[in-house]
C-alpha cells in the first residue's frame, strides 16, 4: 500500500480483493463473476461515502500526498513553449520556485509556481517547496517583466511555507515576501493564483495577491500548519486534526468565507489519480478567468484587486464602536 492515506485503506484493500478474485477466476475454472460484481458495487458506494464526505484533516493529508501533481506537472499539460528563466539577479537561483514564459491557448503568459519534489533527492534540490528570499525575488522579477510586456501572470501555490532558516532571514526573507505583496497589489496586468496543494502562511501569500484566486478541491490555505496551530493553542502538536477543523483552511470553508473565487473539482481519489484530467479541470477555470480579466483596463485590474482584498474579513472601526456607546 505505497503512498496510501489512512482514510483510503478500506478502498485499497477492497480493490485488491477484487483484483485477487479476478486473477483467481482467470487461472481456474471457478466462476466468481457474481461475487466480483457485488464487491465492485460495494467499492463504488465506499468511494462515494469516503471521497464525498472528507473531513478537513483528510483534505490536509490529500494536499500533502507525495504523488500529488506539482507545478511542472501542470505546466506540461496547460502550456506550450514553456521557457524557464532563472535567478533573481542579486544572489542566485532558487529551485523551490519555477518561473518562465509560455503560451496559454496561443497567448503569451508568465508562469510562476512553487515546486516540491516527489522523492528525497528532488525534495532536497527543491528545498521541499519552501522558497528562499531569492526565490521570491525571482518571482517578482518575472512579474515586473510580465507587466513590461503586458503578459498575464499565472501563479501556482504549493508550499508548506517560506524557508524559515537563519540564512534565509539574513538574506531578507520577510522583506522579500512583503515586497511581493506590495508590488503584486499594483501590478497592471491580470494575475490568477491557483492553490494546487498546500498554501502555507506568507510563503503562499507572496504569490497569492491575485485578481482571481482559485483552489483545488483538496487544497488548503492557512496562516500556519495545523500542527503549528495545535502546538500554540493547546501545547500539543498531536491535536492537528482538531486544529484543521477549527481553522477553516479547506476549499469549501474558504469559498464560504469569500476568500477564494472558485473551487476546482478534483478527480475521484485526488488529483494524483489522473493528472491530465485534473489539468483539464484547471484549464476550464483558468480560461474563463483570463477571459473575464482581459477586458479590464490596467487601472481597473488594480482597483478590482484592491477591492477584492479589502472585502476579506470583518472588522469594526473605532469610530463605529464609539458611536454605539
Topology:
Elements lengths: L8 H19 L5 H19 L4 H8 L7 H8 L1 E5 L12 E8 L2 E8 L5 H6 L7 H16 L4 E7 L6 H5 L2 H13 L5 E10 H5 L6 E5 L3 E3 L3 H9 L5 H8 L3 H6 L5 E3 L10 H20 L3 H14 L6 H7 L1
Parallel strand pairs: 3-4, 4-5, 5-6, 5-7, 6-8
Antiparallel strand pairs: 1-2, 2-3
Helix pairs in contact: 1-2, 4-13, 6-8, 10-11
Pfam families: ACCA (PF03255)
Protein name: Acetyl-coenzyme A carboxylase carboxyl transferase subunit alpha
Family: Belongs to the AccA family.
Summary?
The chain is an alpha/beta fold and 325 residues long. The chain is built from 15 helices and eight strands. Strands 1, 2, 3, 4, 5, 6, 7 and 8 form an eight-stranded mixed β-sheet that branches.
What does this structure look like?
The protein is α/β, with parallel strands linked by helices and 325 residues long. Helix content is 50%, strand content 15%. It has helices spanning 9-27, 33-51, 56-63, 71-78, 120-125, 133-148, 166-170, 173-185, 201-205, 226-234, 240-247, 251-256, 275-294, 298-311, 318-324; strands at residues 80-84, 97-104, 107-114, 153-159, 191-200, 212-216, 220-222, 262-264. Strands 1, 2, 3, 4, 5, 6, 7 and 8 form an eight-stranded mixed beta sheet that branches. Strand 5 (191-200), helix 9 (201-205) and strand 6 (212-216) form a beta-alpha-beta unit. Helix 1 packs antiparallel against helix 2 (33-51) and helix 6 (133-148) runs parallel beside helix 8. The longest helix is centred in the C-terminal third of the chain and has 20 residues, at 275-294. The mean pLDDT is 92.
Amino acid at each position: 500500500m505505497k503512498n496510501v492515506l489512512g482514510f483510503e485503506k478500506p478502498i485499497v484493500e477492497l480493490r485488491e480483493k477484487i483484483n485477487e478474485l479476478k486473477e483467481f477466476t482467470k487461472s481456474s475454472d471457478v466462476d466468481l463473476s457474481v461475487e466480483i460484481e457485488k464487491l465492485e458495487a460495494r467499492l463504488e458506494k465506499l468511494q462515494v461515502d469516503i471521497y464525498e464526505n472528507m473531513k478537513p484533516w483528510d483534505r490536509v493529508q490529500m494536499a500533502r500526498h507525495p504523488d500529488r501533481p506539482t507545478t511542472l506537472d501542470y505546466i506540461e499539460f496547460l502550456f506550450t513553449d514553456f521557457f524557464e528563466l532563472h535567478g533573481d539577479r542579486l544572489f542566485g537561483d532558487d529551485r523551490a520556485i519555477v518561473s518562465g514564459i509560455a503560451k496559454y491557448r496561443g497567448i503569451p503568459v508568465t508562469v510562476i509556481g512553487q515546486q516540491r519534489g516527489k522523492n528525497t533527492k528532488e525534495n532536497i534540490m527543491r528545498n521541499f517547496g519552501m522558497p528562499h528570499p531569492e526565490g521570491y525575488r525571482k518571482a517578482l522579477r518575472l512579474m515586473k517583466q510580465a507587466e513590461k510586456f503586458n503578459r498575464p501572470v499565472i501563479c501556482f501555490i504549493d508550499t508548506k511555507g517560506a524557508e524559515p532558516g537563519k540564512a534565509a532571514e539574513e538574506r531578507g526573507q520577510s522583506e522579500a515576501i512583503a515586497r511581493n505583496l506590495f508590488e503584486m497589489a499594483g501590478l497592471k496586468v491580470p494575475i490568477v493564483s491557483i492553490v494546487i496543494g498546500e498554501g502555507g502562511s506568507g510563503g503562499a501569500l507572496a504569490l497569492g495577491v491575485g485578481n482571481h484566486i482559485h483552489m483545488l478541491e483538496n487544497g488548503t490555505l492557512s496562516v500556519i500548519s495545523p500542527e503549528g496551530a495545535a502546538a500554540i493553542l493547546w501545547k500539543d502538536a498531536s491535536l492537528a486534526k482538531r486544529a484543521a477543523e477549527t481553522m477553516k483552511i479547506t476549499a469549501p470553508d474558504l469559498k464560504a468565507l469569500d476568500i477564494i473565487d472558485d473551487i476546482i473539482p478534483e478527480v475521484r481519489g485526488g488529483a494524483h489519480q489522473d493528472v491530465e484530467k485534473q489539468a483539464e479541470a484547471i484549464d476550464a477555470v483558468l480560461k474563463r478567468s483570463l477571459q473575464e480579466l482581459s477586458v479590464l483596463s490596467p487601472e481597473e485590474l488594480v482597483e478590482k484587486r484592491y477591492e477584492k482584498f479589502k472585502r476579506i474579513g470583518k472588522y469594526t472601526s473605532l469610530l463605529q464602536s464609539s458611536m454605539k456607546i
